Amino acid sequence: MHAFDYKSPEVLAEALQQLADSDGSAKPLAGGTDLIDQMRTGRHQPTLVIDIKKVAELNVLECAGDGLHVGAATPCYRICGDDNVQQDYTALADACNIIGGVQIQSRASVGGNLCNSGPAGDSIPAMIALRGICVIAGSAGTREVPVAEFCTGPGQNVLADNELLVEIRFPPRPTASGSHYRRMIPRNEMDIAVVGVGASVTLNEAGTTITDACIGLGAVGPTPLLAARAGECLVGQTVSDATLANAVEAAKEIISPITDMRGTQEYRVHVTGVLVRRVLETAISRATGDPCVVRPGH
Q: Average per-residue pLDDT in the chain?
């Protein structure tokens, strides 16, 4: 690994100043589970690594009246172990529970996963489905960007060199709502998704009609995708096989998967349809309170 300077600020303003002073040659380190590996292979060669784990604003994990706040450096084990996340933001808990093993989850963060901007990042479709909003700070002030618009290409995103992702904020969950994230992987653990799907649904009081839905897709395009039309075609429809089938077809229409060592293009299209249906079924079961058995990673 190349030589680099290391700083560990404890105040957000200090971290932002260090970024601004580096003139684009610095990299923030949230957990380092992606960055350190990329530095070892030469993909990134920053002259300065800024460890942001000690910045209080980036370690927030709280559920308030305006929803859930997740600091960009908050480790996955805290997120999937949080009672509020497990109860109301289940898709996020599902995703954090399968990002690497126990050691990785003790360091990795959803903020880092998002900033790495890999098309197959596990937490991103879940955050899209839960309508996450990125709070970004920089020398020019603070701005907000939906998670669905954050990634702009493989390994690329909307962050400027002098900006830092501070937190992801999720709106309050309505009653009779449920969410789920599931991926297909070729092995049982510690692998990259062939396809990943996150979904959130809200039902009417009777539990028979879908009043809101949002679906996120991963590993089937150059960036994680918001399947907007797939969600829209569910709204106002009764819960039925035909309704879910329409959403499946709408989701498959927007994807552009590649063929690689983990799966062919045709296989990914098929798996997308299977997962969209299964994830929606589980999200609906959670919204109605019906029992559902979900094995992490399957």
A: 94
Would the CATH topology of 5-51 be identical to that of 58-170?
no
Whether this prediction's pTM lies above 0.85 is answered by yes
How much of the chain, in percent, has pLDDT values that exceed 70? 97
Its CATH class, for the domain covering 58-170, is alpha beta
Sequence-ordered alpha helix ranges (H) in the chain = 12-21, 35-40, 76-80, 83-88, 90-96, 102-105, 110-116, 123-129, 228-232, 241-253, 265-288
Which sequence spans correspond to the domains of the chain? Answer: 5-51, 58-170, 177-288
Six token digits for residue 275: 């997962």
* Architecture of the 5-51 domain: 2-Layer Sandwich (3.30)
3 state DSSP class of 192:
coil
**The predicted structure's pLDDT at residue 189:** 57
CA end-to-end distance (rounded Å), the chain: 36
pLDDT surpassing 70 at residue 295:
no
Q: Tell me if 197 sits within 8 A of 182, measured CB to CB.
A: yes
How far is it, in rounded angstroms, from Cα 289 to Cα 284? 8
